[in-house]
Amino acid sequence: MQRLLRRLNTMLIDNSQINALVLDFDGTITKQDTISVLASIGQAFQRRHHHSLKQPWTSVVEAYGRDFQDYTSTYVPAPVDRTTLSEELKFLRGLRDVESASFGRVGDSEIFHGMNKEDFSMAGNEALRDGTVRLHDGFSEEFMACAALQNWRIYVISVNWSSSFIRGVLSGFPIDTIISNEIRSDGIIVGPGILGPPSKETVLATCLDKAHALKALVAEQNLDIDNVVYFGDSVSDIECLISVKGIIMSSGPDSSLIKTLKRTGVTVQPITCIDKSANLVWASNYREIMSVALFQPV
């Protein structure tokens, strides 16, 4: 471990000044999106209890696809003409109606009806153990081990449907707080308490919602925003990534998020070519982050 810490010798900020590391979950900690895993868990639960869904799950998925396509295909300006960050953020924030409608359809389908927080937590833990959910290389054996040794505070902010599921997946790690949506026992998805009483109106669904959650977390935990590092992989992370020091998880330089940022004039460098002034870089996994060094030494 001391050898690992000696490698922390270049990037963004002095590691003695770090307040917190804030991570997205799906695609950032995990290698893949886990929403389909959650859906499979709900379907299996209803089969075990001999309950039928109010509507076929495929219809829920297809309805979301239609809404998303309708919004993106008719939005003006088109992607090629959205060349500023403000234009892109307006487009992304406008997806909230699409996402909220989908959350509502999930609840109406009753795919998660009757499940409690413990059910989701146990399912998350089992999904990690049996390999259904896989974590990015280096997350557990290097990154989290180093974070624990350095006493860095670790938080998760996610638009995932179930914070209990996330907690189950990450039960073996010292996560301080998970800010995400939750599924009630009636199957309805509600938002996290940090943004007000949990309800359908406070769900985390867009990049702006996550930015509000990050701001609330910083205030609640009395963090110095200048010394927070955020990790994300998708366009729902854009506002958080640009508001602090940001690390994008991407298998290469052509991910949707990186291309979107470059199109809007935001510079993104590979972590292997980092200079000390950069606020936003990308890496393929946590092993790569640790091998090239994450923070300047004390």
UniProtKB/TrEMBL annotation:
<dbReference type="InterPro" id="IPR036412">
    <property type="entry name" value="HAD-like_sf"/>
</dbReference>
<dbReference type="InterPro" id="IPR050849">
    <property type="entry name" value="HAD-like_hydrolase_phosphatase"/>
</dbReference>
<protein>
    <recommendedName>
        <fullName>Haloacid dehalogenase-like hydrolase</fullName>
    </recommendedName>
</protein>
<dbReference type="Pfam" id="PF12710">
    <property type="entry name" value="HAD"/>
</dbReference>
<dbReference type="InterPro" id="IPR023214">
    <property type="entry name" value="HAD_sf"/>
</dbReference>
